[in-house]
Amino acid sequence: MSYKPAHAGSGPASNSLRILETVARFGTGTTAKEITDALRMPPATAYRLLNALVGDEYLVRTSDLRGFALGHALSGLVAAATPPTVCTAARTIIDEFRQGVRFAVHLMMFRSASLRVAEEDPDYPLHSVFELLRYPHASAAGKLMLAELGDPALALPGGQLVKVTDHTITDSGRLEEQLAEIRVAGQASEINELEEGSASLALPVQLPDGSAGAALCLTGPAERFTAISEHAEAARELTVRLKPLLF
User: Fold this and answer.
1) Are 241 and 179 contained in the same domain?
2) In 85-223, at which residue ranges do the beta strands (DSSP E only) sit?
3) Residue 137 belongs to domain with CATH number
4) Which residues are registered as beta bridge partners of 61?
5) Which residues of the chain have pLDDT under 70?
6) Are residues 204 and 186 in contact, defined by beta-carbon separation less than 8 angstroms?
7) Is the whole-model pTM more than 0.90?
8) Measuring CA to CA, which residue among 80, 82, 92, 191 is closest to residue 202?
């Protein structure tokens, strides 16, 4: 049988993606022959790419070694790209809490060393969203996540501490000291670091194993940070109520 790639000029990366798509479509146990037939790909090419995908854990071999299934690495990518889901009960108690404060209340989820907006305050929309998601060292929620990770470089673009504002921490030693304080205090804060004139306090919502899986954030004007902090204990009580609803 002669083989001709479905897309002329396809490179290794494109062919690897096509193999993953085929396994996802056919399901667990997809064989190498099914892949080569479906993609009209030479067996030598398919086997080389399959071995690489298994080595990188994007695919795993089934227990009988006859076929393939999607691996853990791909599951992590899917989880990171999927928008967080917050149940109605959780949204309801967050809304109730918002009625008792005059500041924005947002819920951020931690996904594969990155932040995701799970519940945005409709009355006080998030500003600087790109910077919030891209530079975790500049936000309270991001610092909470970095403190949980242990190695900030895992979540920083290129491992660099980008200067978002004049107040953003860009010294790695100073950041490490602050993360250590966050681990002890069980909360994180920032003033003017993500956006000039803004401040935020973040408290962790814990996973069943006790680690932080999300952050409840109170945000408002920088000059009102003391007033924001006065809601810390009530916010912490809310995180306890949120835990069984989110995880």
Assistant:
1) yes
2) 104-111, 114-119, 188-191, 198-206, 212-221
3) 3.30.450.40
4) 68
5) 1-10, 76, 79-81
6) yes
7) no
8) 191
